[in-house]
Amino acid sequence: MKIDCKELEKNRIELEIEVPAEEVIKEKEGIYAYLETRAKVPGFRSGKIPRDMLEKHFNDSVKHEIMEKLVPKYFQEAIKQKNLTLLTAPKFSDVKLDENNSLKFKAVVETRPAIDLRDYKNIKLTKFLVEISDEEIEGKLRELQAQASVFSDVQGRDDARDGDFAVVDFEGTLDGRPIKGWSKKNYSLEVGKENLAPGFTQAVTGMKKGETKNADIQFPADYGFHGLQGKTAVFKIALKDLKERKVPAVDEKLAKDFGFDSIAALKERIKEELKLQKEQGEKKRLIDEMVTRLVKGTSIDLPSTLIERQRDYMMYKLNNELANKNATMEDYLKANKLTEEKLKEKYSEAAEKQLKATLIFAEISNREGIKVEDEDVKNEIEKLAYAYRQDPLKLRRQLEQRGLIDNLREDILERKIIDFLFSGAKIEERGKPFWAGIGKLFAGKK
Questions:
Q1: Mean pLDDT, the chain, as a whole number?
Q2: Domain 2-112 in CATH: superfamily?
Q3: How far is CA 40 from the centre of its chain?
Q4: Per-residue pLDDT tens for 303-338?
Q5: Can you give the residue ranges of every domain in the chain?
Q6: Torsion angle, CA of 380/386/387/390, rounded to 10 degrees?
Q7: Within 10 A of 191 (CB to CB), how many other CB atoms are there?
Q8: By C-alpha distance, which of 416, 407, 409, 427 is closest to 285?
């Protein structure tokens, strides 16, 4: 096999490969031997078809099959011979098979760049001590009060007032046409609180139970839903029921309703859970900082095309997410005060960081022998199955059928590498960050 290499740009190489003619002939003869026993040609019996007739009828398909088999095979051989590690799938071009059994093709590949990975075992981090305030505990108690609230019919009147919970049917139209996603049955809302469309609860205020009315709703120019900005929609609203919420007192009965002997015990559990949540949040912050430092401190020369491709993929995912929310990129740019150019710049930076982190993790995995064992996959699937209340074997089959087992392995490997790095980090504990008290320091000042 003949291989010519040409560097197009950093870590981007063009391979020109020529397959030995004897290998082409061997493959060709094997295909024709198969055709001699199986092919059907009008006027001839199977097994009795002359070679020239087979070549006349099947020449193009035989050439196609030879290329389908030999191009990937000899590409892999070339990669092994040149000791290349690929970052992306190859792009094949100029695939030619002539009558002299000469098969040549080109492949452009992006190879793993050199990584100047420095000390990654002693990354210095500062962890801020977690504190839980009385206000936070009281806030959680108010949430529990809301959960334990009892709703009952409003007595003595039938008009909707602030604080009531109205059960309504509504349908929104714009220029006489229904607005997608703005039609609901038995929708519950708190009168006086804007939690749907601007001005909607004002329209409900004063309505009587059983009443139906049309209300004009003016959407602001910067509203988040595409097509509604600055428009006036008509909502047909039917008030079906009125409820009032009775909030229980914070007392021993409330504690017992949630399975605790006393308010003190309930508050202690709330404090523990809040602390756990904050500890998890602080650990996530430390991991993000650790990865950022690792990326910034590691020299990797990535091809611009690779960064652009990753950026475009990330923006493609963003577009899909926006479409699912009935929004557009224009809406997103307005809401985040971005231009398309600024967004591309932002995503290019994120794409570069993501790619570098992936390469760094791969290098650490190789150096430290961090691997994902079959037992790791089995344990992870069992955890997922327990969380989603599924049979582990059934879940595994589903993941295999959808080709997601490799993704699962990648996730497990990433967690293993992060755990390895985090366990070796030098973590210094300090009190609250100085900025935590800024809100109180400037409270009341204009």
A1: 88
A2: Trigger factor ribosome-binding domain (3.30.70.1050)
A3: 51
A4: 787 888 889 989 998 988 888 877 788 878 887 888
A5: 2-112, 150-246, 263-441
A6: 100
A7: 21
A8: 427
